[in-house]
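Supplementary Methods. Inverse-folding protocol.

Structures were first reduced to a discrete structure-token string of length 174. This string, shown here, constituted the complete conditioning input.
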């Protein structure tokens, strides 16, 4: 599997979830073992030298990559969920997307102060969701060492919203 082959597995879905949005559907990529492994290995190689204690995955598709990467690297996994999905006390951050707004939550005390966290999601578009994940880590005293994405939609300039003190890497770009 290579970059071009993996890119060909991303399906465009026009007008989803609302008119005017071109949705990048990664499910064909997830169904291809070689492509999925290629994405995980690519993210791992970019952040291997930095080191991290946890991988924070953003609901919902970010969980897929983040949990697999955490298992592959021996890091802990922190799920960042939509409101009302976690059973214990939470920290919460609100954010805006290119077509809506939302909130993310993680359990209070998900990590100890000073712990290093890699934030992983399937797609970075406007950057609001990833930034919210980073803010949750900082609320708990953690250190965001990087942001890893399977896909980046460059025209929406989401990378520019993220802090410059953390490494940012996207495997596939559109």
């Amino acid at each position: 599997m290579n970059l071009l082959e993996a890119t060909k597995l991303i399906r465009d879905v026009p007008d989803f979830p609302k008119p005017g949005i071109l949705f990048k559907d990664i499910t064909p990529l997830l169904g291809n073992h070689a492509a999925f492994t290629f994405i995980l290995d690519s993210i791992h190689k970019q952040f291997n030298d930095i080191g991290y204690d946890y991988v924070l995955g953003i609901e919902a598709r970010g969980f897929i990559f983040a949990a697999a990467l955490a298992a592959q690297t021996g890091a802990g996994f922190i799920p960042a969920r939509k409101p009302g999905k976690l059973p214990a006390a939470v920290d919460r951050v609100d954010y805006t997307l290119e077509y809506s707004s939302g909130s993310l939550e993680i359990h209070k005390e998900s990590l100890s102060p000073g712990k290093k966290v890699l934030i992983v999601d399937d797609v970075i578009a406007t950057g609001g969701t990833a930034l919210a994940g980073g803010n949750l880590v900082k609320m708990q005293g953690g250190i965001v060492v990087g942001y890893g994405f399977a896909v980046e939609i460059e025209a929406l300039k989401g990378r520019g919203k993220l802090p410059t003190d953390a490494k940012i890497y996207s495997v596939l770009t559109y």
